[in-house]
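Fresh eyes needed here. I'd like your take on this protein's tokenised backbone:
***
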Amino acid sequence: MPLSYEEIFQENEKWVAEKTKTDPQFFERLALNQTPDYLFIGCSDSRADPDEITGLGLGDIFVHRNIANIVNPIDLNVASVIQYAIENLKVKHIIVCGHYGCGGIKAAMEEKGIGKNSPWLQIIKDIYRIHKKELERIKDEQKRYDRLAELNVIEQVENVMEMDCVEQLKGTKEYPGIHGWIFNMRTGRIIDLEVGTAQRSKKPKKSLVQRIFSLFRKK
């Protein structure tokens, strides 16, 4: 069963005692600085905790989470996180991680509840329209949601790569590896979608805005 509010503080005291027993200087070092190698951009879903699924510890991973792991180019929050991570923390990798069973993905596809009129989820609706033919060929509803979750990660990876603060590092040793993952909570495994810096096609990929514009031109 989940801990009660009061029990959280009791567990915190136990955790502190255990840490200091094995390493008396642990918190002194922790307070000095952070030097994470990874920036993790994930979903706010309570079942997709980055520390838990990766095995990384305190100070190893810089984290930004929001509904459906969206990297919206006009979102100052995520833009500031990315800029700080690469310019100040000098992270070596940026990971965009979605997950199967994402409520934001489902809401955007079904256009119910928050998905009906949510400006935040509009970018996922646009991704759905771009890939509508592929998605509608998938008759199994769960697999169709899973595929949209994957397509969303792929698109958000592209958005990361197109950010000015990231692009200006191209050709330098500080240019980070950029990756797209899916967390399969049905198995507990992380799936590398093999997109981003290592797998990017030599042919430039059109941005989402360009592809949406091309749809209107065809009509």
Summary: The chain has a mean pLDDT of 91.
